[in-house]
Amino acid sequence: MSDWHVNASTAERYVDGTLAEPDCWSVEQHVEGCASCAGRVSRAVGAGPAGVLLGDVRASLLARVQGKAVAPAQARLPTRLWWAVGPALRGAWALALVVVAAGAVGLARGADFAGARSLLLALAPVIPVAGVAVSYGRHTDPLHEIAASTPRGGLRLLLVRTVAVLAVSLPVLAVAGLLLPGTSVTAPGPATWLLPGLALTLAVLALGGYVGCRAAAALVGGGWLLAVALPCLGESASAQSLAARLGEQLSLYLDGRTAQTSWAAALVLCAAVVAVRRNVYDRWETM
């Protein structure tokens, strides 16, 4: 049986349906491993009544494929890009970003509140953290399981959405900081939060490999807010006094070469942890 092959007569009877059913099974099993017999049967099919129908189907498929190929691949890029970054740019986070930025400018210019810059600097580093928390995971993305199982899922998709969050939040908050007028209340410069914001965002990714994205964001963001706010709540005082105390506390964390160098070192360390543990992000079951 190993030397048996499909001859022309058998192929013709297979095509016109006159071949016995057991012999049909033998032909179908044989052509799976024999290229020459598969070609003989294919030619017989093409020469038979089904050949015209198959030719029409083939021509229709080629017309469709060629018609779609005319459109450049770049035309589909916005759809793929929106699918990748969509969860990062919708929902309450985007509204919170606008409220914080516009609120700080409104307080400073409309209400003449001297502590507006301090409030903005206190909240700005955790806004990207919150954006990362709501951009990845089954709790925010209904297609999370499908997306995470694709070659573009896992850490790659998480980084794409993190970059999308940073690309939106950093310019908005930076412009808001520049629009704030000068104040007599001690406060760091308007751009001093950028490096801490990046470091805290990378800290969420690094810690998320152990405890999940939401828990990591809560720990990192909550820790920052507590570190900034608790020293300012020791005793009751006026709003201006609290603003001044908040500005002094932020200056300890943000101002100066030592503080910025420490944040840079933390950023590099967190990036290294993410790189070393990159395979963990492919199986984030609790994200």
Looking at this protein, list some descriptive labels.
14 helices, 287 residues, mainly alpha
Oligomer: single chain
Radius of gyration from CA coordinates:
32 Å
The SSE order reads HHHHHHHHHHHHHH
In whole angstroms, how far apart are the ends?
Answer: 57 Å
Helix content: 55-70%
The counted number of beta strands is 0
Please give the count of helices: 14
Q: What is the average of the pLDDT values?
A: 77
Low-confidence stretches: 69-79
By secondary-structure content and strand pairing, the structural class works out as mainly alpha
Net shape: elongated
Major beta-sheet overview: none
Could you tell me the strand content as a percent range?
under 5%
Textual characterization of the structure:
The protein has 287 residues and is mainly alpha-helical. It is 70% helix and 0% strand. The protein is built from 14 helices and no strands. Helix 1 packs across helix 3 and helix 8 (126-133) runs antiparallel to helix 10 (155-179). It is elongated, with a radius of gyration of 32 Å. It starts with 7 loop residues before the first helix and ends in an 11-residue tail after the last helix. Residues 69-79 have low confidence and may be disordered.
Detail the topology: elements first, then pairings:
Elements: H1 8-16, H2 21-31, H3 35-47, H4 50-70, H5 77-85, H6 92-109, H7 116-123, H8 126-133, H9 144-149, H10 155-179, H11 194-211, H12 213-229, H13 239-254, H14 256-276
Helix pairs in contact: 1-3, 6-7, 6-10, 7-13, 8-10, 8-11, 8-12, 11-12, 11-14
